[in-house]
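Q: Give me the 3D complex with nicotinamide-adenine-dinucleotide.
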Amino acid sequence: MEVKTAIVCGAGGFIGGHLVNRLKSEGYWVRGVDIKENEYGNTNADDFVVGDLRDYQLCQSLFDRPITEVYQLAADMGGAGYLFTGDNDAVVMHNSALINLNVAEASRLNKVKKIFYSSSACVYPEYNQMDPQNPKCTEDTVYPAAPDSEYGWEKLFSERLFLSFQKNYDISVRIGRFHNIFGPQGTWQGGKEKVPAAVCRKVAEAEDNGEIEIWGDGLQTRSFLYITECVEAVRRLMESDFMGPVNIGSEEMLSINDLAIMVAEIAGKTIRIKNIPGPVGVRGRTSDNHLISQKLNWAPSRPLLEGLTQTYQWIEKNVNATRNPSNENQVLDTAV
Ligand code: NAD
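A: Here is the predicted complex, encoded as structure tokens.
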């Protein structure tokens, strides 16, 4: 039987690293590519290229053997502190758009059959996400477009880019709109971490009866999807005839303050929440899973609490290892 071959762009990152491992477990030959090595050593790629996808020659050089599938997850991204202050808008748009233009063109010229593009819930219009208890994020509400960040506008542009390639060329496209993916081996410090990891780190660092800071009034709502569920949905989408764009997220919505309370309970600590000014994004957001359940028969199989417990334990070990560097290797090897 012919071995399937895939390139995972962004394999040095969180979701890309997990996706490589999933494809390997399915028998694929996988080439990972990223501007950096996987921070946690979380990739079993057959070949890993450290290179800049903004460089078109680099993109071309990845196809020195026939590749059937490309998974395009590389992007200049981070949490609210990176994407929603406005300070990084130009680099985010420039870097991610260049990567997407290059990956689309190199994939086409090298006769890739199918390409997955990781879009985001950030494409949805701000005007439908003003009520924290009742956000509207069905796939068909994306237009008239009004994302609340330049990151979201770039994702929308690139959705259209890949769909245009499908329309005009012989390449099949699948688009997933991720909603807050979290789990072990995700960025948990340094300014690019997203809210579940940031809250886990703050709670892990806090003393019992201590205090943690949460940006905004904490009443803004979100939902969070555990990494293995995300990878399962991506694979189902790739295997199906349905191209999307489709939400890949959870419908278990809660406020950020409630998320912090949940993490504190996992940690067995009593924690006071101090709400402080900071970048928060839209007031409410959650995945709407009607379309994905209808087309792919998929829904998350585990509650938030389970994934959050795994994530907290992993981040707590990292926090402890940072305090005591002799434990560090022990933590980096921890798999999901
Ligand atoms: P991540 O930051 O961990 O991974 C992205 C990777 O892209 C990084 O390893 C980074 O080094 C790499 N990259 C950036 N610029 C590059 C370049 N010029 N050349 C090569 N590699 C480059 O992020 P992630 O959470 O794994 O997200 C993966 C994808 O999913 C991204 O496209 C992101 O926008 C999208 N997404 C993620 C979430 C989420 O909650 N994690 C939500 C919505 C969308």
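A quick observation: Residues 89-109 form the longest helix (21 residues).
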